[in-house]
């Protein structure tokens, strides 16, 4: 039995050029080239005219004379990448970044709480578009190699699932250049032997592949062609924070509505802290305004906590302080993150801080009860009184708040 297709490969489409088109509406639908002397990125409109990454700038302009050439803005691309990877890590802790604009995600074991891998991938794509304003193509497969090929085949702005029983039918008709590691030189060697598809390469004996391409490359590529890729997804970043955010659209939001949404976000984060036996010291409020500009506000506690009520009180204070700017500029996204994490058993005893009872027995009991109810009946089984009768999309039974 081959197992389930649980590996996602997520790849942002024409990343640098897409950020430029996102931030400058006049560029949307037009051929865009990032970089003058050498093409760093090209929009799909420019690619359709023959422009390619790493092409000489003069050649690119000859291929597409009406292209808009813009200088790179690396800080903007880095900021967009950080926002996308935050969504990746909010989806699963098993994220292996390959570059600024692509990553593998392992979602095995999440079916019960998050749905099938295809459903998870669809939500991931929707979140990246809604919260960051970018399109991401996703391939889903049993192995990393097949997931990466699937995402490339699905571009632009696509989702493709390769089920285990369909792997050979999907991979073998593709050009041999689709094998991860086959560049122009290797492809030329294979073409000279009459090998043009992955299936034709797979029909070779392993010894022949090694003789033509060298032992290491031949062994590796031949294994991929025969659907063997045992490499697991390896998380490439130690999680130093946890966060969650919600896209709001462009409709005006009242302070009460934002308070309800922020409460729901903090509730989820508090539960995740306790599930992992962690405490945090820094609470950060993240906002995106209607013009796509972003802002963050944070506060660091003297004593770490895992108490939802403490975190919510801090987050509420940050939101209150930002309301004047929110009212003036409009807000399209709100989020929160908790950082400076530590193991709960390594934290000192919580004491009263700025009027907040950090270790109140009633508050700790309330968190425990709510966690237990949600564990048994689902995440939406219970909420806090602040959500009652207020527009945050909440319809579950409400437990009284601890004040």
Automatic annotation (TrEMBL):
Enzyme nomenclature, EC number: 2.7.7.7
Catalytic activity: DNA(n) + a 2'-deoxyribonucleoside 5'-triphosphate = DNA(n+1) + diphosphate
Required cofactor names: Mg(2+)
Subcellular location: Cytoplasm
CDD domains: PolY_Pol_IV_kappa
Segments passing through the bilayer: none
Bias kind Polar residues: ranges: 234-244
Region (Disordered): 224-250
Cofactor note: Binds 2 magnesium ions per subunit.
Domain UmuC stretches: 7-183
A GO MF term: DNA-directed DNA polymerase activity
Entry-linked InterPro entries: DNA/RNA_pol_sf, DNA_pol_Y-fam_lit_finger_sf, DNA_pol_Y-fam_little_finger, DNA_polymerase-Y, DNApol_IV, PolY_HhH_motif, Rev_trsase/Diguanyl_cyclase, UmuC
Active site feature: 102
UniProt main location, coarse: cytoplasm
Residue positions binding Mg(2+): 11, 101
Site (Substrate discrimination): 16
PANTHER family (UniProt xref): DNA POLYMERASE KAPPA (PTHR11076:SF33), DNA REPAIR POLYMERASE UMUC / TRANSFERASE FAMILY MEMBER (PTHR11076)
Function (record text): Poorly processive, error-prone DNA polymerase involved in untargeted mutagenesis. Copies undamaged DNA at stalled replication forks, which arise in vivo from mismatched or misaligned primer ends. These misaligned primers can be extended by PolIV. Exhibits no 3'-5' exonuclease (proofreading) activity. May be involved in translesional synthesis, in conjunction with the beta clamp from PolIII.
Sequence similarity: Belongs to the DNA polymerase type-Y family.
NCBIfam families linked: PRK02406.1, PRK03858.1
HAMAP family from the UniProt entry: DNApol_IV
Protein name, UniProt field: DNA polymerase IV
